[in-house]
Structures are given as C-alpha cells and as structure tokens.
C-alpha cells in the first residue's frame, strides 16, 4: 500500500525525501527524511527490476521548496536572536507560519491519495528546528508550558518571539495618604508605579499591576497588607532577586511590600477573584456632638447588621447603580473628644465605609447618621487588615 501510493504520488509531484516520508509520517518511529529516502530506495529498486525509470530526489521540491535543507540555518537565526537580546529562559518551543498555498497544496495531496497517516509540514519543521536548538541552547523543548516560543516565518526568514509572562504575588501596605492605587491624573505617583518601577528595571519587561480590591486615595492600607499580583509581559530577565526588589520598594517609605513570590496564571486568577472580609478603622466626626450613649447605640445597631447600600454617588460614573447587600460582623468604638469617635469594623469586602458612616443621603441604610439622627462624616479611614474568612471578631 505504501509503495503503490508513493509511486502514484511521485508520478504527479516531485517531492523531497522529507515531504515523501511525511505522507506516511504517523507510521513507524523514523524521521520523515529517512522514511522518505527508504521508500524511494525500495520503490526505485522495484521499478528498475521492471525496466522503468526511477524517481530521484528533485533539485527543488514542488511542495516545500527545499525548506528542510535550511532547518539548521533557522535554528541559528533563533539562537542568535535570543543571544543578542540576552533572554533568560529554561525551556522553549518552536512554532511556524507556513503560507496558505503550501498548506492547501499538502491537504489536497492527502485527500487525492487518501493519506490517512500523514503529518502536517509545519509540525515536522518545528520539530526538526527544535532538535538543533536543544543542542545549541542545551535546554529542552517544552510543549506544555515553555518560557519562550520561537515563531518562524520560513519563506520570509523572520523570527518572532513569544515570551511567557512572569507573575509575582505579594501584599502591599500604603503607609501615607494621598496616593492612588493606580496612576491617576493629577498625581505624580501611585502604589502601582512605586511597585512596578523596580520590577520593570530588573526584568526589562512591561509591568502590569493587579490589586485584589483597592482603597481610596485618602485611605491608608496597613496591617498585613493588600494582596496584589505583578504581571511582567515579555520579560528579558526571569532570574530576579525578589528580596532585593522588596528592599528597593520599601525604601520609598510610602509603600511597603511583603511575602513576594512567583506564582502561575491560574493562581493569579484565584487571588484576584477572592473576596475577603476586611478590618477598618475610621475617625468619625459629629458636628452636633457625641455622647457615650451615642457610641453605644452605634455599636449595638451595627453589630452583625446587614447593610443595604446603593452605589455611592461619588463612584456612579464608573460603577453600575445597584443595591449591594453586605454585612458588618463586629464593631468597636471609642470616644476621642466631644465631636469625634474612633470606629473599628469587620465587614464584608465591597462595603463602602465612608457611606456607611454618612448614609450618602439615604443611599446606605442603616448608617451612623441614620442611627444617631445626626450628620456624620468620615474624617480619616484606614484598612487595617485583609482577613481570612474564619476571622470575624475584633
């Protein structure tokens, strides 16, 4: 069957040994070149015995144009580009972009001669270039999760690099007020810019900051810190010293980071979609004055209380106008003076604390203003801790 089909194929098309062998590429464990050379040898022996002309390997293959004679050349192009850029990686993969007309021609060949065990041209090309690169780099091909992919356009001799991103998890503390989490017009720096600068410098890649939630510009993030992930796109350097980067960030005295570690994309998704309870401390101002009875009433009413909160007016431009249901789990309060008291809260994530205090003209209920029947404002607010779901009391 193989010799009969090969004879019919070669009567119509002048194929190199690689393309002939690839027509039966899923049979046996040899390379396509050796398989094709062997088929041609046996077929020619039979044709000579019958007094017929033989099928010599053509000077130029009608299908691939002799591209397989240049696999080592393309491997060296990939190697030279990686060396020139100084890219760090532990594993790689080779991909390619073959012209549509060649892919279509190969498919027509399969269909015409009913080739059930053929292999696509790009798969063989990728594998053969990869063999040379494994020797040059002394690093393995990884088909599942490579650090870098070399995409070759063989007929235009172009090499494109696809570099796997780096993902670094950590927690940040925002130690001062007046800094947004991400870049904002009117502010020279942000939590993201302070954290990303040393990462970009160390990796020579593009740094993208992902926070697990955010706090307002005038709110500090203290305690055990807020989880975040730094995503580094197209990193040239992968072997970076996280401890040294943490020290550089912490020297800002504005933002501190801790618990830095490498993670994968799946872990990043889980971190950024988790919704944890939070511990807050607010300085509340009551213009009409506050008494011990008032403070006690606030604690009693808010303890284990369900809050119905319509989207605050101040964020309506970027948030849907809906009613969110959140819970306050634990409350403590302490009078500071006759117009101020300190309020400690443990609540569900996503509860707007400033509006829990002011009431936002009735859009949040109950609120401190509603409970006391007096106008209340949040003068200062700090996020003290991002809590494990099991922690519910102060």
From TrEMBL:
NCBIfam families: pseudo_Pus10arc. Responsible for synthesis of pseudouridine from uracil-54 and uracil-55 in the psi GC loop of transfer RNAs. Residues 37-165 form the THUMP domain. It holds the Pfam family Pus10_THUMP_arc. Its EC number is 5.4.99.25. It catalyses: uridine(54) in tRNA = pseudouridine(54) in tRNA; uridine(55) in tRNA = pseudouridine(55) in tRNA. It comes from Thermococcus paralvinellae. Belongs to the pseudouridine synthase Pus10 family. The active site is at 216 (nucleophile). It comes from the Archaea. The keyword Amino-acid biosynthesis does not apply. The keyword tRNA processing applies. Keywords: Isomerase, RNA-binding, tRNA processing. SUPFAM superfamilies: Pseudouridine synthase (SSF55120). One of its GO terms (molecular function) is tRNA binding. Substrate binds at residues 280, 352. InterPro entries: PsdUridine_synth_cat_dom_sf (IPR020103), Pus10 (IPR005912), Pus10-like (IPR039894), Pus10-like_C (IPR048741), Pus10_THUMP_arc (IPR055174), THUMP_dom (IPR004114). This is tRNA pseudouridine synthase Pus10. GO terms for biological process: tRNA pseudouridine synthesis.
